Amino acid sequence: MRTPWIVGVSGASGTPYAAAVLRALITAGEPVDLVVSRAARLTILDETSLSFRDAHWEQDLTSWIGLAPNDIRYWPAGDLAAGPSSGSYPARGMIVVPASTAACAGIALGLSKDLLQRAAEVNLKERRPVVVVPRETPVTRSHLLHLVELIDSGAVVLPASPGFYGIGAAASSQQLIDFVAGKILDTVGVKHDLLTRWTGQLST
Ligand SMILES: Cc1cc2nc3c(=O)[nH]c(=O)nc-3n(C[C@H](O)[C@H](O)[C@H](O)COP(=O)(O)O)c2cc1C
User: Fold this and answer.
1) CATH number given to 5-188
2) Of all atoms in ligand 1, which is nearest to the CA of residue 40?
3) What is the mean pLDDT of the chain?
4) Where are the domains of the chain?
5) pLDDT tens digits for range 87-135
6) What's the rounded Cα separation, in Å, for the pair 68 and 71?
7) Helix (H) or strand (E) holding 116
8) Which candidate, 24, 34, 47, 87, has a CA 20 to 30 Å from the CA of 5?
9) pLDDT tens for residues 11-51?
10) pLDDT of residue 166
11) Best of 13, 116, 142 for a ligand 1 pocket test (most atoms within 8 Å of beta carbon)
């Protein structure tokens, strides 16, 4: 039976993190079910100048991530009858990357306003791994309380907060993106070579 990771891309800045995670999952041979929120189309457009259209998702995804999709099933965000909206649909868990404050609130409160929020809620209730990657700064008290609620529900909250160790202050933006993507993949136990691991030795 095909048991995918569900990847939800919401409308926070940081779509390169989503692209890096998708490339790494495809490279690792992991099946993926993909949901891209309506707002995420704006951030993809803003950050890459590319459109992302339901009707042309395969072509648009290839242009966006620079890799042909392999074993990816795409579900429109408005399709609340889609497979991932039910707990009986097989899934290994879900990664929400990047996660907008709106998506964090909606998932924490169980609003299920679209398929991304519903699928995340379903994976939490089924006690599967759920990784939420918030991107906002500074934050309000309510942003933080929603993240606490997500942790209490079993999610891993993994802020898009790259470390500079091992790569240094001259790190490229791709190295910083890969650091966050690598931490996400570590969390869900998928092999990758995206980040430089701490060896116990300061680089001098
Ligand atoms: C270009 C752009 C950048 C945005 N960046 C962020 C962001 O970094 N973090 C965030 O929480 N919301 C950000 N937003 C606002 C969200 O897109 C907005 O709250 C939206 O309702 C989120 O919907 P979604 O969770 O369904 O994707 C941004 C919006 C735009 C258009």
Assistant:
1) 3.40.50.1950
2) 27
3) 97
4) 5-188
5) 999 999 999 999 999 999 999 999 999 999 999 999 999 999 999 999 9
6) 10
7) helix 115-125
8) 47
9) 999 999 999 999 999 999 999 999 999 999 999 999 999 99
10) 85
11) 13
